[in-house]
Amino acid sequence: MRCLVKGFTLIEMVIGILVISITMVYFTTMLNNSTKFVADPWHQIRAAELGSALLNEIISKSFDENSDRSGGAIRCSSVDTGAVNCTTPANLGADTNEDSRDDYDDVDDYHNLNSTGNDIIELSLPNNNNLANNYAQYQLSVSVFYDANLDGVNDNAIGTHKLIQITVTDPAGNQNAFSAYRSNY
Known about the structure:
Blueprint: H1 10-38, H2 40-59, E1 114-116, H3 118-121, H4 129-134, E2 139-146, E3 161-169, E4 175-183
Antiparallel strand pairs: 1-2, 2-3, 3-4
């Protein structure tokens, strides 16, 4: 009579456990690496919202400190109106009486604006903690300069167009750039 024994040997068990262990390590490593890409779309959406909102805020302001704020009848540096010169490139930025974004009244006041965390949303919704938490690790910087020939390069001279460039850095360190021109009209 023959006795049939069914089962695994000790060597087969050890090899099976080893194969399962290697497979598990491979899959957990793959899952761990993929989780950092799951958050990227969320960061990109928030950066786009933030950049777009700030760009709209800036563009809604007048072209220059010396421009007419009641309809654009007087343009700075305009020969036909005899208006005063526009702000020189060296003097772009917030004016002496403008201490916060709430006081900014022309596009170049935003030049060299750098904000992080709560400073980003403080002006628009000061008591919204949920929004503050969403943007707590974001950074933004703004650059404004004259670019009369629309080539994206600083002209270092008074011109008819100002290029507004915004860079939003998300918590993962990705930089998102936004830009627009504001014309002297």
